[in-house]
Amino acid sequence: MIKRMKHMTNNGQRQGTTKWKGWSGFATIIALIVAALFMYFSLDEEPDIDRTGFIPVELVRTIDGDTIKIRYDGKEQNLRYLLIDTPELNHKQQGKQPFAEESAKRNDELLKSGKLEIEFDIGGREDKYGRLLAYVYIDGESVQQKLVEEGLARVAYIYPPNTKHLDPYKDAEKKAQQAGIGIWSIEDYVTNRGFNN
Fold first, then answer.
1. Is position 58 annotated as part of the catalytic site?
2. Burial class (CB in 10 A: 0-12, 13-18, 19+), 126
3. What is d(CA 58, CA 52) in angstroms, rounded to the nearest whole number?
4. 161 preceded by cis ω (within 30°)?
5. pLDDT at position 156 over 60
6. Pick the catalytic residue: 102, 106, 117, 131?
């Protein structure tokens, strides 16, 4: 009888071990499937954007292609985009410059398409007119860079140390110029001093 009980216990242990091995293999397969699915779906996602220093603000209105009015720090303030220049809607000598309306309209479209945030650089935060100087983002993407990419702005007003994003803007400008789009489609329109009619 004792031998028989021992045999049953051994059989029970063997059976339990076999059952455990079966469940262990099944769990491993499930874990591999879950890991594969996770990897597959994370490949489609954009990499996380470093939003350190980004400040959420509210758009009051779009003034032109490179200037907006925002609600920041409890009050309405004008903000001038760092490192870019767009044609003027009401230039003192030239009136409305070519692509001024297009840049203002595109700026407005971008600003109303998602979450608006700004980022200050390490230098002064205001220009001589009291306007804030900052980089502008919609859902983490640079509005300045988008305008330059689309040929609606030139890289300008480069005053160190406010040059954090100068290189990507310069690269975007070069591509737009080579493609001859927007402001680059008019010969000798863009100069290092601005825009010529």
1. no
2. middle
3. 18
4. yes
5. yes
6. 131
For 60-112, write each residue's pLDDT tens digit.
999 999 999 999 999 999 999 999 999 999 877 778 899 999 999 999 999 99
Return the bridge partners of 76, or none.
71
> Does the active-site annotation cover 80?
yes
Got the DSSP string for 46-111?
A: PPPP--TT-EE-EEEEE-SSSEEEEEETTEEEEEEETTEE---SSBTTTBSPTTHHHHHHHHHHHH
Q: Cα-atom radius of gyration of the chain, to the nearest Å?
A: 30
The one catalytic residue in 80, 102, 117, 173 is: 80
Model pTM score: 0.74
46 is catalytic: no
